[in-house]
Amino acid sequence: MNLKSVNLKNKRVWLRVDFNVPVDSQGLISDDTRIMSALPTIKYLLKKGAKQIILATHFGRPKGQIIDDLRVGFIAKYLEKILKETIWQSKEVAPKEIPNSAKIAMLENVRFDPGEEKNDEKLAKAWAKLADIYVNDAFGCSHRAHASIVGIAKLLPSYAGLLLQREIEVLTEVLDHPQKPLTLIIGGAKIDTKIGVLKEFIHKADNILVGGGIANTFLFAQGFDIGKSLYQEDKLETAQEIMLSAEVYKDKFVIPSDAVVASEMNDKALTLNLPVEDVEGDMKILDIGKTTLMKYLYVINKSAMIIWNGPLGLFECECFAKGTKKIAEALAIAKGKVIIGGGETIDALKRFKIDEKKFYHVSTGGGAMLEFLEGRELPGVKALAG
Ligand code: ADP
Ligand code: MG
After folding, report:
1. Active site residue 190
2. CA-CA distance, 93 to 95, in Å (whole number)?
3. Structural element, H or E, at residue 333
4. Which of 1, 4, 85, 365 has the greatest number of beta carbons closer than 10 A?
5. Domain count, the chain
6. For residue 386, is pLDDT > 70?
7. Is 343 an annotated catalytic residue?
């Protein structure tokens, strides 16, 4: 499973990457982190004498159809410039053959083929024919049982790329040898995707600090009036269940005691910092309040390991960004090991211009990181082992 243990000389390598990059209104790549993160593996394969690297990624959500705007050629062009190597571009998702002369090739958007998301064996076989070994470096997609993640891995000798390897190592450390006190900071919009992690960490973590939209559901479940705040009515029972199981651990599970509220969600909004019991009417809770922030910063300072997923407020608006920003800044200088993951959480770091290198680990997977931390075996990781 370890790429470093395999002889790559003259091998044709089918490399699943996650080049699902964000683009701006002109279709230009607005953030190349995902491309840059795959470079160590690509360079390693080249250095070790691989004969051919076949790159494959998805881009956007074409749902099994060919959508011209979602072709991946522009990503290949971008990578060409970085690598200073020509990339042979396939017009098809699964071409019959790739010219021998192509040192690096890139397949068309794998999700153009309906077989990708269905983990179709025929598609996986067509891909496997092109290569000698399979390498997965797309951690962010490894919680999906897709043909390019699972199907092909079963047909070829399969290995984790360097990026995927590092993700597994760090997240396994968190699960198996967490440093104590261990703190989980959880925020974001909806509670659904975070329930599993909350349930797992109630027993594992020493502190769970809750913020963002999900805190509203907990506040509501505790009987507070949350005005017009975002919350999930269908998750009230789950929220109650989680709080109930936290009761045996004194003060472990912390929800905000005060909040920044406004009736509008924009930068011109009139804001107030209120104790949560004073929220009413058309007020919306849009950030954690000052007292809550101080408390959370205090816990961060005492922690040996901290995992953070989910913004603590509507950080996209300046007037509701303070909680998320101060927490991010505190984590950047924290003594403990900090592990961060989540699409919008990482967007927040960028917005606040905080260098990712300041943290022990910034995961390339949002959903995949959460599922891993729940203790679930990711299909893509499992496929590499078996
Ligand atoms: P991540 O992608 O990091 O896992 P989520 O997708 O769960 O995070 O949620 C991020 C979104 O949650 C952000 O766009 C943020 O604006 C929103 N959010 C956070 N707190 C609130 C709140 N109190 N009210 C409304 N939206 C919120
Ligand atoms: Mg998100």
Report:
1. yes
2. 6
3. none
4. 365
5. 2
6. no
7. yes
Question: In a 10 Å sphere around its CB, with 0-12 CB exposed, 13-18 middle and 19+ buried, how is residue 104 labelled?
Answer: buried
Q: Are residues 323 and 296 in the same domain?
A: yes
Residue range 77-96, pLDDT digits in tens: 999 999 999 999 999 999 99
Q: Give the global pTM.
A: 0.93
Query: Looking at the structure, do residues 199 and 237 belong to the same domain, yes or no?
Result: yes
What percentage of the chain has pLDDT greater than the value 70?
A: 100
Long-range contact list for 374-377, CB < 8 A, 24+ apart? 374/196, 374/197, 374/199, 374/200, 375/175, 375/200, 376/143, 376/196
User: Residue 142: its pLDDT value, please?
Assistant: 97
Boundary residue ending a domain (164, 195, 224): 164
Q: Is residue 325 annotated as a catalytic residue, yes or no?
A: no
- Report which of 51, 338, 61 is spatially closest to residue 346, judged by C-alpha positions: 338
Pocket of ligand 1 (CB under 6 A): 187-189, 212-213, 230, 285-286, 309-311, 313-316, 342-345, 366
Q: Whose CA is nearest to atom 5 of ligand 1?
A: 188
Please state the φ and ψ torsions of residue 3, each to the nearest 5 degrees: -60, -30
Name the residue range of residue 204's domain.
180-335
Q: For residue 311, which atom of ligand 1 is closest to its CA?
A: 19
Q: Does any domain span residue 347?
A: no
- Whether 342 is a known active-site residue: answer no
Of 60, 196, 227, 367, the active-site residue reads: 367
| Last residue in a domain, options 118, 134, 164 | 164
Q: Do 144 and 287 share a domain, yes or no?
A: no
At 15-61, the pLDDT tens digits run 999 999 999 999 899 989 999 999 999 999 999 999 999 999 999 99
How many angstroms is it from 46 CA to the middle of ligand 1?
40
Are the C-beta atoms of 70 and 60 separated by less than 8 Å?
A: yes
Residue 302 maps to which CATH number? 3.40.50.1260
Closest CA to 74 of 130, 32, 135, 14: 32
